[in-house]
């Protein structure tokens, strides 16, 4: 299913600061207000019967945080490199409850401030491609960065199941 077309006025609400991260040399933006912290890779405790992109949980200062591998979620080969890290984000569930989750990314790039003129709606890729987790596309220094709706990157059902088991 394709994402609804974003009216020009809506791109104004998308303006703001984004943390850009790399996955397989492609840049993605996560709203800075959703980012809680960036930590080094650490031992992840596997949890049985979760989807392949959910690697397990970590203990972050006494809190159990589920960890999602964005490479696997986006259909890329799971790989770790020297700069691989975990971005801890706050995700809002459909029940209005918020949970913290870790997102494994190849590396963190920078924080960029985007104005409405630098953000375009997500292109229509056809009816078979689900783009509901994309906020739009940003043009930064001649490059295109995909802006993620972090609340939708992981399906609500999966987030809810993780929150109940954690």
Descriptive notes:
The protein has a single domain (8-165), classed as Beta Barrel (OB fold (Dihydrolipoamide Acetyltransferase, E2P)). It has four helices and eleven strands, in the order αβββββαββββββαα. Helices cover 15% and strands 44% of the residues. With 166 residues, the protein is an alpha+beta fold. The protein starts with 7 loop residues before the first helix and ends with a helix. It is globular and about 45 Å long. The strands form two sheets. The chain has a six-stranded mixed sheet.
Characteristics:
6-stranded mixed β-sheet, disordered N terminus, OB fold (Dihydrolipoamide Acetyltransferase, E2P), 166 residues, alpha+beta
Brief sketch in words of this structure:
By secondary structure, the chain is α+β, with helices and mostly antiparallel strands. The protein contains four helices and eleven strands.
Task: Lay out the secondary structure.
Blueprint: H1 8-14, E1 16-23, E2 26-31, E3 35-40, E4 54-60, E5 63-69, H2 70-73, E6 85-92, E7 98-105, E8 107-114, E9 119-120, E10 134-140, E11 143-148, H3 150-153, H4 156-165
Parallel strand pairs: 2-11, 5-7
Antiparallel strand pairs: 1-2, 1-8, 3-6, 4-5, 6-7, 9-10, 10-11
The major beta sheet can be summarized as: 6 strands, mixed
Mean pLDDT: 84
CATH superfamily: CheA-289, Domain 4
Poorly predicted segments: 1-9
Q: What is the helix content?
A: 10-25%
**How far is the N terminus from the C terminus?**
31 Å
Judged by helices, strands and strand pairing, the structural class is alpha+beta
Quaternary state reads: single chain
Shape: globular
By DSSP, the count of extended strands is 11
Provide the domain count: 1
At CATH level 2, the architecture is: Beta Barrel
Rg, Å, rounded: 16 Å
Q: What fold name stands as the CATH topology?
A: OB fold (Dihydrolipoamide Acetyltransferase, E2P)
Helix and strand string, N-terminal first?
HEEEEEHEEEEEEHH
Order of strands across the biggest sheet?
8-1-2-11-10-9
Strand composition percent: 35-45%
The tally of helices reads: 4
The CATH class assignment is Mainly Beta
